[in-house]
Structure of Transcription regulator [Lactobacillus plantarum JDM1]:
Amino acid sequence: MLYSIGAVAKKTGISSYTLRYYDKAGLTPFVKRDDRGQRVFDDDGLESLGLIRCLKQTGMPLEDIRQFVHWCDGGDETLPERLTMFEKQREAVLDQVHQSLLNLRKVNHKIDSYRRACELGSEAQVDCDYIPKRTASDLLRQVREYEETQQL
């Protein structure tokens, strides 16, 4: 099945403007043109866009994504480079997760502090500077519980 740029924008949440930019930037060599010269995407192209979006959301620069796309076009000879790129990106994502967990700990502390202050009727009654230590597994458990309640 082929999709117009407008249909892809609706389906993916990536604006038509951004899709055109990606095409001009060399990130979407899989985009085809119909007989009127309009960009069209197939299901494989949608899958590739999903990966590009994932990489972008994990903080990978467009230049690196372009390199990855170029390596994909290069075939199996570039498998080691692609593997190395994804291993490095995994480390970057793990660093983001770690930082997010630290931020979650601080946010949870403030929630706990304000709940106690509400119960006691005054912020002065609560030690707001003390942040209890929580393990990463405790925080990940909280994230899982949140996801379950939100049905993510």
The helical segments are 5-12, 16-24, 43-57, 62-73, 79-120, 136-150. The chain has six helices and three strands. Strands lie at 3-4, 32-33, 39-41.
